[in-house]
Amino acid sequence: MTGSEDSPSFRLAYVPGVTPSKWVRIWNERLPDVPLTLLAMSVGESFDALRGGDADAGLVRLPVDGTDLSAIPLYTETSVVVVPKDHVVAAVDEVSAEDLADDIVLHPLDDTLDWERLPGRPAIERPATTADAVDLVAAGVGLLVVPQSIARLHHRKDLTYRPVTDAPESRVALSWPEERTTDLVEDFIGIVRGRTVNSSRGRTQPAAEQKPARSPDKATPRGKPATGRTGAKNPRRGAGPAKGAKSTKSTKGAKRGKPRGR
């Protein structure tokens, strides 16, 4: 494992819709001498940055392609359908994929939802990005299903969104190159997992710091004194009370007065 001294700063990539501010604040509190640089990237760019060494870790959306990247799932997002405010879907609280069967549902090239079967009718051409698809929804061309944070990111006054009950959910994860699991990466893992500052900052406890177990051959024999000569008598056993000490014998029932004559 590479020591933190090899990386004077920490570079964190994050994809649209993910808000890393809470974890960045904790990082700045715990590691004020190690600056954290945020890198806003698309999903594809974030994986390229991790593999190319341009980012130490990234907040990405699953699935993570390939076996060279490690990933820890953090949370799951509900998927929603983005519609114009005057669309019939805007009048209900939630919909199913079947409810969108008669609508054109846009499927941008950067979509991260793992669909088994896309809802609705396909558009003639797939938009290049989610932002392009949102513009098409506003123009009345079709609808768009995205993670809820993406819908909030692209909020417009003329659009709204509703949950899709049976759409695949989006999972956000922390990912990093497996071969570059540095101390700073371990520190950030500890932060996103909610570990306290006293838990070795998320790092593995060194074996030298653990208390060694007591050797059986040095254990004190049961039933024998731990110190002093074995079998030595107590020097005060059987002796009277020490000078100035009060007697512990009870005087209850003792007769007072002169002794009887014979």
TrEMBL record:
Residues 196-262 are annotated as: Disordered. Residues 9-194 form the LysR substrate-binding domain. This is LysR substrate-binding domain-containing protein. It comes from the Bacteria. Residues 252-262 have a biased composition (Basic residues). Residues 211-220 have a biased composition (Basic and acidic residues). It comes from Streptomyces tauricus. Belongs to the LysR transcriptional regulatory family.
